[in-house]
Design goal:
The chain is α+β, with helices and mostly antiparallel strands and 114 residues long. Helix content is 25%, strand content 7%. It has two helices and two strands. One of its GO terms (cellular component) is plasma membrane.
């Protein structure tokens, strides 16, 4: 016999109210650059818009693997999430609720996709 919950629920849980939280996919700062570079190469080859992070591109600065990977991961995830795309990249990325362009560690001057 299944366990009984007291008091029993009267119906389905109420739907969430308020605006949905904005999410961004960014690289984990603890991941070594060579591993992050591999994950970024995957993102760029699988649908991310990586033209902006190429030399001379509007999002090339700061020129770090972390900043470029964060941009590529978020680009990929924003483009593919509705079709089931994930923000994992082999454990090198994480979803955050604060716009990564507000982090001093990325200081990206680009508009962040959402």
């Amino acid at each position: 016999m299944p366990p009984v919950v007291f008091p029993p629920p009267t119906g389905p849980p109420s739907p969430r109210t308020g605006p949905p939280a904005a999410l961004w996919c960014m690289a984990k700062p603890s991941v070594p650059d060579p591993i992050m570079q591999e994950a970024m190469n995957y993102a760029c080859g699988s649908g991310a818009d990586c033209d902006s992070i190429q030399p001379g591109g509007p999002c090339f600065q700061p020129d770090t693997v972390f900043a470029h990977a964060s941009y590529a991961f978020n680009s990929y995830w924003q483009r593919t999430k509705s079709a089931g795309g994930s923000c994992s990249f082999g454990g090198t990325a994480i979803l955050v609720t604060v716009d990564p362009s507000e982090y001093s560690i990325t200081s990206t001057p680009c508009p962040v996709l959402q």
